[in-house]
Design a protein that fits this description.
Chain lengths: 269, 298
């Protein structure tokens, strides 16, 4: 083991994978997030929940450097996020991807390697091996040559998951990975996320599916421009917290257990 | 038939015209793939027209057309980027303003010269049969530079075109890469204009690449097919113009357009006929959700 690796591991030990400290983000004069604090631990699945427009996507985008940060700091394994770009993989919402672009499944997964390949160089055998592995893990090896528009919603989601795997990032950020995906693919994706967390990676997913967040996440962030509450779902998804997060948008159909008694009313636009 | 092909080749100007059209046909087909995929047709048209004053100034000062055109092309590209940074001026508005403004500057400049009508038309529609050996050499050099830069930055240009969000997330300088792409498009347009003119160059840039998009499903094959179609269309169009004694640039563009419509109708997977034959058999729910039809994903 090299000196650098040892130093990195020492530095990482005991620090949360992702630390968001007093984060404020605004689009023009409209505030999206204000004073958000969040610690996301290594090896956990963290669910970010909240009503539409609460800033779930914005939080993920801020961590990955896609939106200008007005105030606050974000660190990944104890280092500034801007210095750790390769350690963070981002899986965009399916609606944000141009599915007509002429690329195959394999092409997209290989893009996960681009940051590591670097400028002026081509993919090598190690990169090919990583792509093969990632395709196997998401069960898309058979259709690696297909154009991305010929896939089902669940398969499309898995292509981008494979790209994140090929990137070999320790933190994965997923924006609504379960929306528009059939039940079988949902199961598969969740199983994969559990495997990744068990292997020591940190998985952060924004979702509007409260019951799935309650069942699958080690930790949930209730977000509504501010961080309302954060912690294990059993304690965090209390009636009061949910009311504070969703306001009038939430219907609580039953008392006591949160699953599957919750239903969120959202307006998709 | 053999005469039909070999007859015109006895003229050196015809040979030069063929080489020129093969070079710019291929170059435009490759670069045009990015123009088509990024939706840059309007900015391409704007650059083609905005180089006009540069050509006129070069003409008046008896300097290189290429240098004059390139300076104004790059200047316009930069101005569009700067003006469009104001949130109240959308990018297509910025393009429209500079497109017309620059072209008007060219018109005013050339009208100050007495014999402007003839020269104006030669700028607008070009003259492929008047290409000199020096012009041909310049085209070859520019083609090598542009294609070389695309080869060097292929990964990055592909990523920033397909998924600019992830490119930004990975820390790539996306604005610089976009400017690089626009500079390559500008170089391609300027070097093509002398042969085909400011009005018709758009067809070289957009039409073969659009045909290629209907034929193949990956970026590199699309660039290759676009380039080959561009080159072949150029050769066919030039023979047509020779035998029917009509304008070279116009003939090539007509052939290019005709080829597009043949491909549009008959392409194996994405053509009109193929789509018609498939109708009703493949309208599964997956097809809908894969296309992002509103409601299908909710």
């Amino acid at each position: 083991m090299t000196q650098a690796v040892v130093e990195r591991q020492l530095a990482e030990a005991g620090r949360p994978a992702v630390e968001v400290d007093n984060l404020t983000v605004a689009y023009g004069s409209r505030s999206a997030l204000s004073g958000v604090n969040a610690h996301m631990e290594k090896g956990q699945i963290v669910g970010v929940i909240g009503p539409n427009g609460a800033g779930k996507s914005t939080l993920l985008k801020a961590i990955v450097g896609l939106v200008p940060v007005l105030a606050g700091t974000i660190t990944i394994h104890g280092k500034a996020a801007s210095k750790q770009r390769h350690e963070v993989a981002y899986v965009p919402q399916r609606e944000e991807v141009n599915w007509e672009f002429p690329v195959s499944v394999e092409d997209v997964v290989l893009m996960g390697r681009y940051g590591r390949i670097g400028w002026f160089r081509r993919a090598g055998s190690e990169d090919r091996r990583r792509v093969d592995e990632a395709l196997e893990m998401v069960d898309l090896a058979d259709i690696r040559d297909r154009h991305i528009n010929q896939l089902s919603g669940g398969q499309q989601q898995r292509v981008f998951l494979a790209r994140a795997l090929a990137q070999d990032a320790s933190v994965l950020l997923l924006d609504e990975p379960l929306s528009g995906v059939d039940a079988t693919s949902q199961e598969r994706i969740l199983q994969l996320l559990h495997d990744l967390a068990a292997a020591g990676r940190t998985v952060v997913m924004a979702t509007h599916d409260l019951s799935s967040a309650a069942c699958n996440c080690h930790c949930v962030c209730c977000l509504n421009h501010e961080m309302v509450a954060m912690g294990p779902p059993a304690e965090t998804l209390s009636k009061d917290n949910l009311h504070a997060t969703y306001g009038g948008q939430l219907l609580i159909l039953g008392e006591g257990e949160f699953e599957p008694a919750l239903e969120v009313h959202e307006h998709h636009g | 038939m053999a005469d039909w092909l070999t007859d015109p080749l006895q003229f050196e100007f015809f040979q030069r015209a063929i080489y020129e059209l093969i070079l710019i046909g291929f170059l435009c087909g490759v670069v045009g793939s990015f123009v088509v995929l990024r939706g840059l047709a309007f900015i391409g048209d704007a650059i083609a027209h905005a180089v006009f004053p540069g050509l006129v100034i070069a003409f008046l000062l008896n300097k290189s057309f290429f240098a004059g055109g390139l300076i104004f092309g790059l200047l316009t590209t930069l101005l569009i980027a700067v003006v469009a940074r104001n949130r109240r001026v959308s990018e297509d508005t910025a393009i429209g303003i500079l497109f017309a403004g620059m072209f008007a500057l060219g018109v005013v400049l050339i009208s100050s010269v007495r014999t402007y009508t003839r020269d104006l038309s030669s700028f607008l529609i070009g003259n492929v049969l008047a290409i000199s050996s020096e012009d041909l050499l310049l085209t070859a050099i520019v083609a090598v530079i542009v294609l070389g830069l695309i080869a060097i930055f292929y990964k990055e240009l592909q990523l920033v075109s397909f998924d600019p969000i992830s490119a930004t997330a990975l820390g790539y300088p996306t604005f610089a890469l976009d400017l690089l792409l626009l500079a390559l498009i500008t170089l391609t347009i300027v070097v093509s204009i002398q042969a085909v003119g400011t009005v018709l160059v758009l067809a070289f840039l957009v039409t073969p690449a659009a045909s290629a998009r209907l034929l193949v499903d990956r970026l590199f094959p699309m660039m290759l097919v676009g380039g080959l179609l561009g080159a072949v269309n150029g050769v066919i169009g030039l023979y047509v113009s020779y035998h029917f004694d009509v304008a070279g640039g116009g003939s090539v563009v007509l052939v290019t357009t005709a080829v597009f419509f043949v491909v549009f109708a008959l392409a194996p997977n994405h053509g009109l006929l193929a789509r018609y034959m498939r109708r009703g058999t493949e309208m599964s729910t997956d097809d809908w959700s894969a296309r992002g039809v509103p409601g299908a994903t909710a």
